[in-house]
Amino acid sequence: MALDYDSFVSRVAALAVIDEADVRYVAILPSAIDYAEQRIYRDLNLLTTTVRTTGSSLTANSRNFTLPSGDGRFVVLTGINLLSSGVRIAQLSPVSLEFIDATYPAETATASSVVPEYFAMVTDQSIAVAPAPGSAWDVEVIGEIRPVALSDAQTTTYLTNYLPDLFLAAAMVFISGWQRNFGAQSDDPKMAMSWEAQYQTLLASSSIEEHRKRWQSVSWTSKALSPVALPQRG
Quick one: CA dihedral 110, 114, 117, 123, positive or negative? Predict the structure, then answer.
C-alpha cells in the first residue's frame, strides 16, 4: 500500500525496533530518506522524473546557454529543441565540445537566420551550441530532474505512492547500517545485508516495469516477456 511521510516514519521505526520519537532517529531520518531516494533515482530511469521545459531562449551571437531550473535542476539532459513562434525548427544533436571548437570556432553568426544544429555539455548545467545562433531562438529542454524529497512538508512522492516497498527497503539498508556501524555490517552480513538483498530483488522487478512504461520491453513493446510465448512475435 502507498505510504505518506507519517506512515513511512512509523513503518521504518517499527522495522528498526526503535521509538519513532527517539531524537537520534529523528535526526538521522532525513539522511535515510536522501539515501533511499538518490539510490532509487540513479538505479531506475524513472519516466516520472522527465520534464520538458520551455520559456528560455538563446542569445544571438553567443553559443553559451544555461539550462533552466524552474522545474528543478537537470541531472541528465536528453534533448534540446529550438522553436520559432511555437514551432520546432531544429532538434540539436549532441557532440563533443572539441568538435564544436574545431568546426565552429566563431562566436558570431553570419546572418540572423542561422539556426544551431549541435550542442555540447560544458558543465552539468550549461551547454555550447553551434553554429552560433543568429537570433534569440526559443529553447525547449528535455531531461531528468530530482523530484522534491519526502519530508513533513512534502508528505508524499512518486516513490511513496508507487514504489513504497522499494523505497522502504532502501531506507532500511541505511538505517540498519546506522544502527550497527558499517564495519560490522561488512564483516558480519546480517540485518543490513538482508535488506540489501531485499532491495535488489524489488529493484529487478521495478526495472522491468519501468522499461515497459517506456516501450523498451520485448520487441520494443510495453508487454512483459512471457516465459511460455517463445519464440517472441515479430
Answer: positive
